[in-house]
Design brief:
Length: 754
Amino acid sequence: MTPLAARFTRVAMHQHALAALRVLLSYYMTNGYAVAAGYLLISASVGLMLGAFAGAAAAVGTVVAIPPDVAGPRKGKFRQMLPAPLLGVPLFFGVQMLHTSPPLLGVLIVAATFVVFLGMAWGKKGAPVAIALMFAIIFSLAVPPPPELKRLDAALQVTGYFALGAFLYVLYSCTVHRLLNARYRVLLLADTLLMLADLLRLQAQQFGEDTPERRSEASGGLISRLLLRQAALADQIQSTRDVVFETPDSIERQRLAAMFLHVLDMRDHLIASALDLDALKQHAGHGAVLAQMHDMLLVLARDTDDLADALLFGRTPAHAQDRRAALASLRFAAADDVQSQGNKALAQGSPTPDALVNSLTDRMANLGDELQRMTALARGEAQPDLAAVRTSWHLFVSPVAWSIKPFYTLWNWRAPALRHAVRAALAIATAYVISLFLPWGTHEYWIFLTIVVVLRGSLAQTLERRNLRVGGTLLGCVLALSILSAHPSFIVMVLCLTVAQAFAHGLALRMYLYTAVAATVLGLIQSHMLHASTSTVFALFERTVDTLLGAGIAWVFSYVLPAWERSQIPNLVRRVIKSQIDHARTALDLAQLNAVDNAPELNWRLARKEAYDSLSALVLAAERSLKEPRAVQPPLLPLERLQAHSYQLLAQLTAVKTLLLMRRGNLHSELLEEPLIRASDRITHLLSGKERRVPTIDADAPVEPALDHLVAAGPEHVPKGWEGSLMPWFVRRLGQAEVLAGQMRKDADRLLKR
């Protein structure tokens, strides 16, 4: 191997090792370790004190209590954890009582499945509880009652061990979760920064070499990937909000919350960073400057990674470099390259190439500024904005109390949760009938377990889970067979179960293939402990067949009473339109410039959050629809255009609002008020459909001279090439926003078939 090849190999190995270490130290794996430690502590303690069978039954209770245990806020943890064991114990007992009565057992399992799956209507909060209750039913089938006892006595004894493990785990979880809260705050913030760095690298691709292939990619696949990454980031941001903004009553918590506010600002600057890129590409000689911008975004991504790693590994981050000097030289380098075109553009009243370059680099400099502020906070060299932190604490975290409202939305035949509950009950009923005719009918629970984890609310999710479940089960069977063939002791098996539990729980939402492998190992070893006479070779064959049967049944029933994404799209489109209207009104509101508190800015941040969330929900629904049969897919072209135009409108208005906030105190608000109000009304009317004429404004048209000099000079840097005035810049941005609003309305009308 040549020295150069060896160097590249070492770099690649280092990158893979670093990526693996980031996963192993992440908040979700830390949660997995805590879960596994609780599993080990409870199952081993009960087993040593009451016997191996009692320990195995208590371990089953622990497994049932585990699904709702995720990294989250301290408040409401007990209320989140309690429903699983509270409702799971009677379900477990009912199955134990009916072990010898297959018809009644089948009725109980099918009816309970329908009721339990209705809990999916509570979304992220209800889904883990529903899964836990299904585990209580399924694992009760796997736990044989002691043959020497009468039915009632045997059921009570086994259920008692089960309940002991479940309720002990609730107490353990609430205690450990409180102890880990400080670490979760850091790890969630670090994971958000890593996702933001990935988004920076993806955004940099828009600044790559301008070839026909690149233009095709930018207009299609790249935008789709950006939207999907933005959706994933929005989901991660909400999870981080719920923990980082909770009770910021110490210096350390306030520091982390303030850093997270800068993450939100970085996302805003990033979404606006590519504005004017297409306009710049229309001028010759842009290749060199765009290549340098591409490299600068990669540098900022690396700096963001470094800050995340410093948080992850518990070290003080290095000083963040000021990137404005490099960007300033970039402007200077671009000036000679575009001078002749700049004179022509000025004569036409359009922004010069130099002005476009400066506008782009200003937004990149803003990204670097936010990164510097975060680093200063992490190093303890800056103080957090306590007013902003405390306000965010009250308004941006998710509610922790259970609400009755989702229950009222269930009783509509078109309701996705109701249809999913019927679908799941029918699938379980089919599996139960099939299991009665299998030669290993006492292990039918494995088919049920596969159906529960594979059958999702959408076809796309079901197909993904089906493939990963089958592959993971095959790998897990081989691994479990290798372990059991060595005839391990009780303690060794408990340790294996502990490791498997850590990965099964920690990676469930990130890398499901590993979860499927670990869950298979967990299930087979747990079953071996409960059925000591079972042949491990036969278990390998039977688990494989059971998994294939369960995955096949789940796949078939995903087409029964389907809730196609097409039926959900209209409501999501209306939500996007409404959120964009609210965001436009608050983003163009001048109240913040003269306010004595942060209330108007807070209203904008709330509107911005809903705009991001609504767009993310639409993006994910559109992505899922691509896996559905073509005959039931929504109109994809207007759907893609609506997403892209929504993203661009957010970018335009964010650029306006950001500059208004940055130059607060240096603007003549009375002179800006009329054009901003006019633009706000026009965008509102266009989006709501009150104005049917779509604007055909030339956003690069000359600006009336009377609008010049309406903005006072100030210390902040402003884009060059506008004759010392910000007003043409505002007019151009607002004009482009109006055009995008009209295009969004056209896209929405095609989707809503108006």
